[in-house]
Amino acid sequence: MKNLASQIHAFGKALMMPISVIAAAGIFLGLAAAMQNPAVTGDAFANMQVPQLIIGFIRKVAAALFANLPLFFAVASAIGLAKAEKPTAAFAAVIGYIAMNVGISATLAAKGLTAASTTPDALQQAGMDQTTAMMTSAEYIQMLGVLPTT
Predict the structure, then answer these.
(1) Which residues pair with 99 in a beta bridge?
(2) Which of 19, 12, 22, 21 is nearest to 77 (CA)?
(3) DSSP character for 148?
(4) What's the pTM value of the predicted model, to 2 decimals?
(5) Cβ contacts of residue 116 below 8 Å, gap of 6+?
(6) Percentage of residues in the chain having pLDDT higher than 70
(7) Distance (Å, rounded) from C-alpha 29 to C-alpha 65?
(8) 69/96 Cα distance (integer angstroms)
(9) Contact criterion met (CB below 8 Å) for 11 and 81
(10) Are 131 and 87 in contact (CB under 8 A)?
(11) Do residues 50 and 30 touch, judged by C-beta distance below 8 A?
(12) What's residue 147's pLDDT?
């Protein structure tokens, strides 16, 4: 029983890594979004090119961290569950995650679902009403260059 508790503790500790990324990225994303909003900072600051480029860069980096959270959790889970060779487990998790996404993408493509065919406009042209098309389109995201489902 003591061994199980220590394994659960190690797994929980490993999952804290991506959660710490969420916290930091969320702060940067929120501050950057606020600083790019003319209603918050005023039109004069919103029209300053250099500060807005820097803030836009920070915002894109923070958004990229959020976009790749599933990969971070896959790696953290592998690290938390591995008893030895944690770097090998993390590498295997990345390979497995990419292979899973490519497999899902190939399956979706075989069914005719691609990035182009799952946009709201394409779904509306296929006969869906606007609300259904938007909800259906939101079920598909690109992750690491492939189109898996959410």
Answers:
(1) none
(2) 12
(3) -
(4) 0.73
(5) 122
(6) 95
(7) 10
(8) 15
(9) yes
(10) no
(11) no
(12) 61
